[in-house]
Model the fold of this input.
Amino acid sequence: MSMCILSLSIAVSSPMAETDSLPAALPRVETINRLPKVDLSAYRHTLPVHVAIAPSPLSKEAPPESYRGFVNLGMLLLFGNNIRLIIENYLKYGILISFPGSSVSKGDWTYTALTHIILPLNVLIAFSLEAWARKRAIGYRKRRSETIPQPGAVAAGDFPDPKLTLQTTKRLDASARLEQSIVGWLHALNATAILVWPSIVTYYYIFHPFMAMSCVIAGCIQFFKMTSYALVNHDFRAAYIFDKPREELGHVAKVHSDSVQVTNEEVYQYDIQYPDNITLKNMSYFWLAPTLCYQPSYPQTKVFRKSFFFKRVLEILTCLGMMYFLTEQYATPTLRNSVQAFDQLAVASLVERVLKMSTTSVIIWLLMFYTVFHSCFNALAEFLYFGDRHFYRSWWNAGNLQTYWKTWNLPMYTFFKRHAYLPMITSGVHPLVASIIVFTISALLHEVVIGFPTHMLLGYAFAGMMCQIPLIAITQPLEKWRGPASGLGNMIFWVSFTIVGQPACAMLYYYHWTKRNMDASASSV
Amino acid sequence: MSMCILSLSIAVSSPMAETDSLPAALPRVETINRLPKVDLSAYRHTLPVHVAIAPSPLSKEAPPESYRGFVNLGMLLLFGNNIRLIIENYLKYGILISFPGSSVSKGDWTYTALTHIILPLNVLIAFSLEAWARKRAIGYRKRRSETIPQPGAVAAGDFPDPKLTLQTTKRLDASARLEQSIVGWLHALNATAILVWPSIVTYYYIFHPFMAMSCVIAGCIQFFKMTSYALVNHDFRAAYIFDKPREELGHVAKVHSDSVQVTNEEVYQYDIQYPDNITLKNMSYFWLAPTLCYQPSYPQTKVFRKSFFFKRVLEILTCLGMMYFLTEQYATPTLRNSVQAFDQLAVASLVERVLKMSTTSVIIWLLMFYTVFHSCFNALAEFLYFGDRHFYRSWWNAGNLQTYWKTWNLPMYTFFKRHAYLPMITSGVHPLVASIIVFTISALLHEVVIGFPTHMLLGYAFAGMMCQIPLIAITQPLEKWRGPASGLGNMIFWVSFTIVGQPACAMLYYYHWTKRNMDASASSV
Done:
């Protein structure tokens, strides 16, 4: 370094000495000006290009580098790989799709239609029950208020016999409580019927699994809706008959909403009060609305946006078409080719099949999610001026499986939280026990939704859901270990859920389905 | 809303009225305290869960949402898809690799070894030339300084005849210039010989393309190194003979570095000055150093980090193994299966093959890049205390093809910039013309490196490189159109370069290679 400075100082001093020594013909200013006018065509190759000590960008010592480009490359490779698989599939199979529904038998159509027609009947029964209970409640309240001293009566000094009043009230209350129980049990019967009826019809009379599934799922939704309707009105009725002040309800709501973590500051107040909410119009609204939780009123939007509505409808049609195409063209051949691997229990082939299936199944699943939870629910909500469109949260960023289950299906989650988890917690049940109970109910319903339509109550769906509890216990500490920014928890979620879990389950069911139906057709021949 | 507030005010006022009207048995404080003590087991189902108007997270109206989870899913799918392809490949082919080099003939080994042995001879010739020129330059400078008045002589009044001095100087200068030219031409001959010799040997005597390529690439590197050595020393010698002040060189460097945009403030000053740099040791250092640009001295590191060096060596061995495995196990079968598609010109099959090839080829290419530009060069640099490790920049984030060509291979880029582009610019050539000339030279060399070893001078490599000029012209506005953050430019870069360009070229060459060798073996039978 010192040598460098030395040579620099020599370089600076020597030309000045030289110009000083030249004959005085040239003025000083010119000599100074001459210096920068270097002939650039000479000595240009001597330019120093290696000028400093610096690490390579990929070295540990280098400053942090962006690898965004590699993410882009990855996405392009994924895209390219799948375009290739589409071409490969086309070269191998041509076009496989047929007209949707052409493979469905006439009997299937009839029974499916019948099951769906039953649904409004179930609603009418629930409403009739409620209307009857309402009438009784008004009566009770009236008679009960007559036994209790009125403010006006007190002022006039017209006291009834307190002992007599207490007896009358007690008798009335006991009678009302009995009726409350009866109404409750009748509601339970009505709700259970709509869960059992489609399951039985499906199991015995509908062959096509997708047709059957539409019946069972509709039954389940109906079951949840009617349960919520009955429970909410049961509580309202009790408050109405026994004349509980409204802020007690408000207080319960506040306590609950603290656990639910409602975002708005004020607790939402219903616009309609019991018994005014027991109308056919109010019930029909709830029946159609994209929610499983009954409320006398919901936050309402002011306008119906036509373009928004039609965009969602277009999305539904497009996504349904895509899902149908993906199922027929990609999922079915892969599933068909997996049967042999299952038969031989060839591990490498099985893994290969599951991985081949994973891309198709994850895309179908994402389309299904988008169609139902975004397009359908938003279209329906827009049509009904239903304000709260939180049908899901950003579950795709879930760092553990619990977050996923809490965010992907909010109608279901809210139902279980409102009508099962929180009531259990406030009754003193341990949160873990309450969670396990909720997961068990959910697992049973998953088994119903998959087992009955496929006519195979194998318990895989139940087991898959029950596995979520230990998986949550594993993924939660893993997420914390590396921090949410690492994406490790999210990766584990995706792997367990969409890469391995779903395609493996689809294959298991397809295998058993094929075996059963092949054996059946073989024995019939 | 007003209705809601109204009902709230009723709810607030009515209980107070009621408690006021009760018999005075209970004190006021107690009645107030009683209110919050709600029996939580009742009315719990009435909790409002839909409390506000809110859009769905995927709606346009919703606040911006993170989709990080989908990127994770994409990466996992890519990984899963390729694990699947590995299993598929294994099930189809088993293990394909053989001992490396077992397919190389004895003649190939001999000629390859011979070519590599020639390289130091070329260095020795270049050095001898330089050493001779140095001796002559010292002589010229001495005789020239004798003809020019010395500061001491001027002071003593001992003036030589100015006319005679000018004549002598002119004659000396002309003679020196002639010798400069001769040395220049001899250097050019020597450099060209090392480019031509391996190409010819390769073309006529070495069958195995990878063995042949090692010879041609070594020749090219040698050609660049010797050219740089000759050009830099030519300029230094001129400055030395004609006694140009050092800061004129410094000024040229400064002007150049303004265009090069050197990051450090000061222009780097060489530690060694001409003619002291003309030593065998100095030349050997340059010959081995990971650069194509000769400098009398380079920024030097202070310590040799053993662990760093051995890590790089381990990386080289691992990456070479992986590249060999990928080539034998994945690239070769894909290429082999593409021949039929080429023969039939089946477009769908060809696209499928190119896309199948793309993942393998991009991974091999990335490994090659890492092995050569990171591991090899860093190991070599560490061994030689070579400080400037900028062998590449973050080209993977390149938003257009120009950025890519400027950043992926800095030794090459720096060579062309220092010894071709900047000298042309400073001579008044238009930058676009200079760029086209540089790309043409580069394209010719690409053709040499690929055409001679494969014995097929088809012009694809030349055409591929020449295509970069219009591609740059297209990608630059596209990058600006959407902004660099969109990643559009980067996507186009990856598609054109690694997804389509490289695998398509590999297939073209493989096809012609197979046809040529199959035809040859067919005609010999």
About this structure: The two ends of chain A are 96 Å apart (CA to CA).
